[in-house]
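Retro notes, item 3 of 5
We never archived the inputs for the nicotinamide-adenine-dinucleotide complex last cycle. Fixing that now. Sequence and ligand:
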Amino acid sequence: MGLAFVDLCYKGLMKKFLVTGGAGFIGSHLVDRLLASDIERVTVVDDFNDFYDPSIKRTNILDHLRNPRYQISEVDIRDRVALEQVFDKNNFDCIVHLAARAGVRPSLSEPQLYTETNINGTVNLLELARHKNIKQFVFGSSSSVYGINAKVPFSEDDPIRQPISPYAATKGAGELLCHTYSHLYGLRCVCLRFFTVYGPRQRPDLAIHKFAKLISKGKPIPVFGDGTTRRDYTYIDDIINGVMAAINYDKSDYEVINLGESRTVELRELISLLEKELDAHAIIDRQPPQPGDVPQTFADISKARALLGYNPKTQFEDGLHRFVEWFRAKLV
Ligand SMILES: NC(=O)c1ccc[n+]([C@@H]2O[C@H](COP(=O)([O-])OP(=O)(O)OC[C@H]3O[C@@H](n4cnc5c(N)ncnc54)[C@H](O)[C@@H]3O)[C@@H](O)[C@H]2O)c1
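Structure as it came back at the time:
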C-alpha cells in the first residue's frame, strides 16, 4: 500500500468515525488504516461474540487500545438503547458498518440470529444515523447477494432477487434499507460488495485459514463438491483501499459497488498453492456440495475503478504468501 493512495482517497473531510465490527478481520484492518491517517477519533462497536474465538478479536485490537484516538464500546448492535448511548457521547461524521453475523453455511442453522443482527442491527444504525444527521454510511455487503449468477463477471446491475442463503438475503436486505434511508433522509450510503477477503487475521472459518490449519496439522480438509468451485479472492489491503475511498465518496447519495480482484481461483488450485506455501500435503475429505454455497464468484470492478479510483494490485500468489507468513508467525 503506497501512502500516495491514502492521501488521494482520504481527503480529511471526515474526522470522527464509528466502525461497527471493528474488532473483526476487516474492521481491525480498517481501524489500522484510519489511525494511520489524520483523523480525530475512531470509535468501535463490537460485541466480541463467539462466532469464532473472541480472544482472536481481543488480539486484533491490542495495538489500537494504545492509541488515544481510539475507543471501544462493547455493545451489541441489536441493542438500540446501548447503541444510542454511544451516539449520544460522540458526534460521528461517518459510520462504516461491518458488524454482522458472517458466513453462509452457519446462517442456514441460525436464520433468526442472522436476521436480527444483520437486518435489525442495520436498521438501528440507519435510524441513529438519520436522527444524528450523520453524513456518510458505508455498508459492508457481500458478493453472496448475486446467488447463482450464471453471467460473469458479476456486475452491480445484475438482478439480486434470488439469494440462496439466509446470510445472502440479509445482506441484500441491508442494501435495500440503505437505499430507503438514502432516499427518504438524504443519508449518503455506499454499499460495498466484498468478494471473499483474505490476508493476515482472516476469519478462522474461511477456507484459506481453515485449510492452512488442517493441512499444517496433517488433518484432512473437507472439500465440498468436486473442487471446481471458483472464488474471486480479494486481498485485505486492496479491500481497505476501497473502503477508504468509499468513506470520501460524495458524487451521489446511493451506490452499490463491487470490491473484488476480478480474477477467479478454482478450489483445487487454491489447495495446491497452499500445499506449496506450507510445504505439506493436503489430505482431501470429499463431501457433497453444501446448500447455500454458490458455484462461483467473479467481480466486475469497472464501477469501483471509475467511482473510487479502486485499483487492486495483489496477485493471489503474493497475497497467499503473505497470509502464510502471518499464519506461521502466529503459530510460533
Ligand atoms: N471476510 C469476507 O470475505 C467477507 C465477504 C463479504 C462480506 N463480508 C462482510 O464484511 C463484514 C466484516 O467481515 P469479517 O470477515 O471481518 O467478519 P468478522 O466476524 O471477523 O467481523 C465482524 C465483527 O462484527 C462483530 N459483531 C457481530 N455481530 C455483532 C453484534 N450483534 N453487535 C456488535 N458487533 C457484532 C463481531 O464480533 C466481529 O468482530 C461483515 O459484515 C461481513 O458480512 C466479509
